[in-house]
Design a protein that fits this description.
Blueprint: H1 2-16, H2 27-30, E1 32-43, E2 46-48, E3 55-61, E4 65-72, H3 85-93, E5 95-108, E6 111-121, E7 130-138, E8 141-149, E9 156-165
Antiparallel strand pairs: 1-2, 1-3, 1-9, 3-4, 4-5, 5-6, 6-7, 7-8, 8-9
Length: 167
């Protein structure tokens, strides 16, 4: 009888206790401002940092809209407020910014599926496209992963970025 009782207690404990695989990310957990910690893009077996090793920027998510602004934190300031053509090209290649309304869908092992329809962007290459990500929130950290076109390279890549809650 003691063995049956012990087995029942253990079974109930494991069934009721949270496991990492069972944790879900809700839409409410996405809301807020998030500071980017890292950004990488993988195409085939090649891993690159499209905005350099030191990326800076934020993602802000409201109940209906997704905002993203990332820059290469090491980029040089222009010589004057009026950019030369070379400076304008360098600035364009060292940043990405876009916004769009989004929807959430099913939960997967890698997070909640978020589809954002880009309705304004710093690059026309991603304007009027859908950016689909799997997003997982773990405490004050957010992990984002999706196969999207990288504006700085024009390549479709697996993009991953890590963020920390900043508000």
């Amino acid at each position: 009888m003691k063995k049956i009782l012990l087995a029942t207690i253990i079974a109930v404990t494991f069934a009721a206790g949270p496991s990492h695989a069972q944790q879900t990310t809700t839409k409410d957990q996405l809301i807020g401002s998030w500071k980017v910690l890292s950004l990488k893009a993988t195409t085939g077996d090649k891993v690159v940092h499209p905005l350099g090793e030191q990326v800076a920027g934020y993602v802000t998510i409201t109940p209906t809209r997704f905002w993203l602004l990332f820059v290469d934190a090491t980029r040089k300031a222009p010589a004057s407020p009026t950019l030369t053509d070379a400076e304008a090209i360098a600035m364009m290649k060292t940043q990405v910014a876009w916004t769009g309304k989004y929807t959430t869908a099913e939960q997967t092992a890698e997070g909640i599926k978020v589809t954002a329809h880009v309705d304004a962007a710093s690059s026309q290459a991603i304007f009027d496209t859908d950016r689909v990500y799997l997003i997982r929130v773990d405490g004050n950290k957010m992990i984002v992963k999706g196969t999207v076109t990288v504006p700085m390279t024009g390549q479709k890549s697996i993009v991953e970025f890590d963020l920390v809650k900043s508000d």
